[in-house]
Design brief:
With 148 residues, the protein is of the alpha+beta class. It has one domain: tt1808, chain A. It is 19% helix and 37% strand. The protein is built from two helices and twelve strands, in the order E-E-E-E-H-E-E-E-E-E-H-E-E-E. Strands 1, 5, 8, 9, 10, 11 and 12 form a seven-stranded mixed beta sheet that branches. A three-stranded antiparallel beta sheet has the order 2-3-4, covered by helices on one side. The longest helix is centred in the first third of the chain and has 15 residues. It is globular and about 50 Å long. The protein starts with a strand and ends in an 8-residue tail after the last strand. 22% of the residues are buried.
Length: 148
Amino acid sequence: MNGLIKIEFPKDKVLRRNNSGSEEIFDAIRKTWVALTPEEWVRQHFIQFLFTQSYPAPLIAVEKQITLAGLTKRFDIVAYSRDMRPFMIIECKRMDVSLSEKVLAQALRYHASLECPYLIITNGAYTLGYHKKNDRFEPVNSFPKYPD
């Protein structure tokens, strides 16, 4: 599969707890406990993976609002370069959601508002990556290194 990137989540880095019968997971970026949903599991494990790849926590945004064609949407993860330009959009889905053209189209819509060189879509089991070159997105087979 073109654009398939192997991701190994770090072991035992994500904090979980039971809060009055509800499972929660700690969001290391937002510094808060959030409901542990299947999509949130993927998002939080991917954030921990970003840390292992030297992506600085202060330059990662999670679930921020953007406006697309007059509609308010929330992206999953955006990693910024040191000059605060969007470097990578990461769209997270739960593991039972296939990485279809529909998922890629969603990430491309976010890109229309936050132009950046890389798009990543993941369901935790599979991760696809794309690099924008000459106004086209081309598949990549390795995870982008953080820009120095």
